[in-house]
Amino acid sequence: MSLFQTTPNPDRSDDKTRPLADRMRPRTLDEFVGQEHLIAPGKPLRAQIERDDLGSLIFWGPPGTGKTTLAQIIARMSRAEFIEFSAVLSGIKEIKQVMADAERARQYGTRTIVFVDEIHRFNKAQQDAFLPHVEKGNIRLIGATTENPSFEIISALLSRSRVYVLKPLTEEQLVGLLRRALADEERGLGAMNLSASDEVLERIAAYSSGDARSAYNVLEVAAALVLEKGRVSREESQNPHPPQKTGKGGAPSLGKTSAAEITTEIVQDALQKRVLLYDKAGEEHYNLISALHKSVRNSDPDASLYWLGRMLEAGEDPLYIARRVVRMAVEDIGLAEPNALALCMAARDAVDFIGMPEGNLALAQAVVYLALAPKSNALYTAYSDVQQDVERTAAEPVPLHLRNAPTGLMKNLGYGRGYQYAHDLADKVADMQCLPDNLKDRRYYQPTGEGLEKRIRERLEEIRRRRTQPPSSGTKTESSG
Questions:
Q1: Nearest to residue 34, comparing CAs of 164, 145, 224?
Q2: Which DSSP symbol is given to 357?
């Protein structure tokens, strides 16, 4: 059997055993919903497709936005053979075999499109196997990925491909797709004579997080629940065996005279658990923690709580969030509100002690406290400057007067000589250089006027003033640590 197929996924839309999402898959660009920035008339991808002038492509976007569908439409419109790979199921042996067949096909003037679903799951060696054939023009590669190609696709392959970013579908677009499925008697649920209010369809759309496949799946389950509810009602009635009408393809029909309604309660049963776009090892993981951190930094408690909830409800490790919250306390608040760190450590301990879901309120308390606390990155900036100086300047020895002198030899060498014991001074501050000579008078910590740092700044100014005054007591030369 040839590895090639001229027409990808031949239309079997009348096969009611296939999932609704598969039956309703668009067959042309005109049927396609969403991604207007790419496939609206005159847009770049549509123009390339219509000219049959495609190179290698990477489709990057969340699930259910049409990556596979676009590849299949391109295959139908293109004068090329089409091979579909799944990175989950295929290995290097299958890749090499297909590449060899594609090279032979090119010798006979036949072009080949290779579509790789979840291409980010291919390792470097597997991705490298495509590279020479892309360069020679033996294949046109179309890869689909939910992960950032910058991190998941090898640079050599990425530089030879054009990346198109697909966006989640809007709730309005999803509602339109659901209505189409309810009305379509050939491929959808039209033969079942179902109705659903705008509120119900909007709820399905909202719960699907921009994923058309997820929305179709919920609608299909809800339709099945309506059928089951109708069957039970008939069995409980006085006439338990009325003649049952059937629609096209043998699908049970609820009758054209009175449409059965998909209610909010039925949708809730179908949903069971809200579909949240989240991958604890993927880009969305980092996007959400970034949103949480930046909302806290911007003193927005409502947004901070929302992003926290998004992560927790999607199954993120609460201790990971706790660690990041502690980081926020020291990076963005610091000494402007020193209690923030203690509260965050207490929240971490609470999560560890009582677990979830009770621990989510401890994290919520910490996040709101951080959002409302005065902000200062003075410590963060100061330590960053220290790191740069440690890296870029010579590591000069510790000044002799700051060194301990536990032996006579060390005292004779000058260790501890000239050290001023601050507690012996009236002002408790000595005019003594504590940095190495190459960093003399360098200032790192610059407290802000926010929260407690306003008092700290005043204290620091007073310390610097006192340091310039002559000492009011004697000098202690021995080093006592």
A1: 164
A2: T
pLDDT exceeds cutoff 70 at 15: no
In this prediction, residue 477 carries a pLDDT of 47
Q: How many CA atoms lie within 13 A of 113 on its CB side?
A: 31
Amino acid in position 7: T
Percent of the chain with pLDDT over 90: 31
Residue type, 167: K
SS3 (DSSP) at 47: helix
Residue 1, pLDDT > 50, answer no
Give CATH 1.20.272.10 domain extents, the chain. 283-372
Strand partners, 196: 262
Q: Where in the chain is the domain with CATH 1.10.3710?
A: 391-467
Q: Which of 94, 76, 74 is nearest to 86 (CA)?
A: 94
CATH class of 391-467: mainly alpha
Q: CATH second-level architecture of 171-271?
A: Orthogonal Bundle (1.10)
d(CA 62, CA 146): 5
d(CA 225, CA 207): 18
Which ranges constitute the DSSP H helices of 153-282?
Answer: 155-159, 171-183, 198-207, 212-236, 264-271
Cβ neighbours of residue 178 closer than 8 Å, sequence gap 6 or more:
196, 201, 204, 205, 215, 216, 219
| Contacting residues for 219 by C-beta, under 8 A, at least 6 apart | 20, 178, 181, 182, 189, 204, 262, 270
Range with lowest mean pLDDT among 134-138, 207-211, 351-355: 134-138
Fold (topology level) of 283-372: Zinc Finger, Delta Prime; domain 3 (1.20.272)
Pairing, β 112-117 against β 56-60: unpaired
* Choice between 3 and 141, residue whose per-residue pLDDT is larger: 141
CATH class given for the domain over 20-165: alpha beta
**Could you tell me if 165 and 60 are in contact, meaning their C-beta atoms sit under 8 angstroms apart?**
yes
- Beta carbons of 94 and 119 less than 8 angstroms apart: no
pLDDT value of residue 255: 45
What Å distances lie between residue 470 and 11, 278, 461, CA to CA? 93, 63, 17
Question: Which has the closest alpha carbon to 445: 434, 456, 437?
Answer: 456
Tell me the torsion sign for CA atoms 86, 88, 91, 92. positive
- Residue 5, pLDDT > 50, answer no
Using the CB atoms, write b or e for 173-205: b if 16+ within 10 Å: bbbbbbeebbebeebbbbbbbbebeeebbbbbb
